[in-house]
Specification:
Blueprint (H helix, E strand, L loop, with lengths): L13 E6 L32 E8 L2 E9 L16 E7 L13 E11 L5 E7 L17 E7 L2 E9 L13 E10 L3 E4 L16 E6 L1
Parallel strand pairs: 1-2, 1-11
Antiparallel strand pairs: 2-3, 3-8, 4-5, 4-9, 5-6, 7-8, 9-10, 9-11
Length: 217
Amino acid sequence: MNQIVPPRFLFRWSFDARKIEKIPRSSGRLLDLPDDCQLPSFAELDQRTDFATVKLAWNSKGFAFSVQVSGRSKRPEAVVGDARPDGIWLWFDTRNTQAVHRATRFCHHFILRPVGGGAKGNEPIVRALPVARAREETALPNSELVKIQSDVSNSGYRLDAWFPAEVFTGFDPATNNKIGFHYLIHDSQLGDQTLAVGSEFPFESDPSLWQTVELVE
C-alpha cells in the first residue's frame, strides 16, 4: 500500500552527540569516533537499508562528523562536469530555530567529497555553500578551516570532517546545547540516504525540516 506521508515525516527526531575532548587528532586518523557516537538508522521505516553509517561528536572547539559508505563495486571517482558528484551535503543551524522556514544567519551549508581535490584528484574536498532561499545574505564560512580526511577503497570510503567553532555563526555549547542538523549522502551507485525526510520535502531550504542534535556532556 502506498503511503501518502512518509513515516519519517510523522516524527520530530532528536539525537545526542557525545563530547569527546581529544579530537581532532594531530596524527593518524583525524577523528576515529567510537561506536556509541553513531546515529541510529530509520531505514526500516521506509523499507530500505542504509548504505552509510554516520557518527557525530563535539567539544568546545568544534563539531565532528564521520561517515562510512560501503557496498560499492568500484572506487568513487571525480567526474569532471558531474552536476551531482558522490558526496555528503550537510546543514547546520546553531540556534535550532525549527519554527522558521527560511534560513537565518545561524544556518550553514557544506558539501564534502571523498575525492576530487589535489593535483591528481584523489584528495577530499570541503566547500561552503549558501543555504537556498535564505532570509538574508551572509558571508560564507571559511571552509579552509575545516579539516577533512578520507580513505577510499573499491567498496566505498570513509570520510572524517572537523568543523572548528570559528566556521559557524553562533556555535556556543555553553549557552545553547542544541543545533539543527540534516544530511544527504549521494552515491552514484547506491542512491541517496538522508537523516530524516528525503527529497520529497524541501530540506535544502527549510530549516524546520532539519532535526535536533543535542550536545551532551
